[in-house]
Amino acid sequence: MASACPRPLFLSFPKSPSPPPAVPAKHHPSTTASLSVSTRARAASSSAPSPSPSPPADGVGPAAPTRGDVYLGRQLAAAAAAGAPARAPEEDAERRRRRKEKRKALAKKAPSGLACCYGCGAPLHTGEAGSPGHVEPATYDLKKRHNQLKTVLCGRCRLLSHGHMVTAVGGHGGYPGGKQFVSAEELREKLSYLRHEKALIVKLVDIVDFNGSFLARIRDFAGANPIVLVITKVDLLPRDTDLNCIGDWVVESVVRKKLNVLSVHLTSSKSLVGITGVISEIQQEKKARDVYILGSANVGKSAFISAMLKTMAYKDPVAAAAQKYKPIQSAVPGTTLGPIQIEAFLGGGKLYDTPGVHLHHRQAAVIHADDLPSLAPQSRLKGRCFPTIMLCSG
Ligand SMILES: Nc1nc2c(ncn2[C@@H]2O[C@H](COP(=O)(O)OP(=O)(O)O)[C@@H](O)[C@H]2O)c(=O)[nH]1
Ligand SMILES: [Mg+2]
């Protein structure tokens, strides 16, 4: 598949409805089909079984309807014609339940008026010192007076930006060590509104730990929204790696995992490889929707946003301005604690950095935060070939 593509680092899925490994979400063939079926079904239900068609009033014989029957029949027919509730009560209850669930999920989206730290997305406060979002009262008051709360970095983010490892997320999928202010489950909940939004999802996967960081149940977060798959940190692959082969392998893996994506990109936020390709794909597919960068913790979401803004800043003054207040990136997972809205596009739609999803099987869940930076690869990995021992029978 990769060899058929014009660009080596951008693997687009076939946009035909033939039995492709992954069907382009923008065509949504299955969605369209089900929509037309349900429309037809509704039309049929409103027209067809008009309740007890009234027999001719001038019928004769013993089976002739009484005047009362005729009256009742007419009343029912009139009610059906006026669009009286044709749905079963269970169907109504189900609809109501779904609408309530959607309203509840959307309420979890942080209100736009709430001031959050631009580094981690935690709401700003002057309460418990050391907790995410904490700011000195004097600074808070001054910035609030000048309407500049959007430019405030919380105390924890200041430490993180100077290389300190400050943990904040605990529990199942979080990691041990330090004070844990938020649980991994609470962070996951913060993303639950997303499946009800109309958005373009950019899903990030770390090439150094592809299966571990893949975030298997992405549709739980993304709903039916289209997904662009971005593989990060390719600068860490051994020097002679054939990226076309890696691309083929990624596409095969995605097909095996039964995930529908628009395209696959191999990128590095450090060397900026492949970033331009993702930007043009996003610009083409976002269609005035918001763009959400999703992925498990530490795959490089905040670094990817920085790389995007840096690349876009050459042409886009809005992206250039957004560069000043970028989300913090750090080797400690759980840096980003709430969706961070970034004004990055000239033509409408916002870019969102999101809290990483913590997975209990990743090394961060068992290794102390202080030891994590020494385990994170800093330079290219070196390939090793081990001799294989052939066992001959007989
Ligand atoms: N070598 C390399 N490191 C990266 C890249 N992207 C991110 N990182 C590092 O991975 C760690 C996690 O990055 P971050 O953006 O904070 O991850 P997030 O939790 O997904 O937002 C940081 O130490 C980054 O410097 C990349 O493309 N190449
Ligand atoms: Mg982050």
From TrEMBL:
PROSITE patterns noted in UniProt: G_CP
Pfam families attached to this UniProt entry: MMR_HSR1 (PF01926)
Residue ranges with Low complexity bias: 1-15, 30-49, 57-66, 77-87
Record field: transmembrane: none
Family annotation (PANTHER family): NO-ASSOCIATED PROTEIN 1, CHLOROPLASTIC/MITOCHONDRIAL, NO-ASSOCIATED PROTEIN 1, CHLOROPLASTIC_MITOCHONDRIAL
Name used for this protein in its record: CP-type G domain-containing protein
Biased composition (Basic residues): 96-107
Domain of life: Eukaryota
GO molecular function, one term: GTPase activity
Region (Disordered): 1-107
Organism: Triticum aestivum (Wheat)
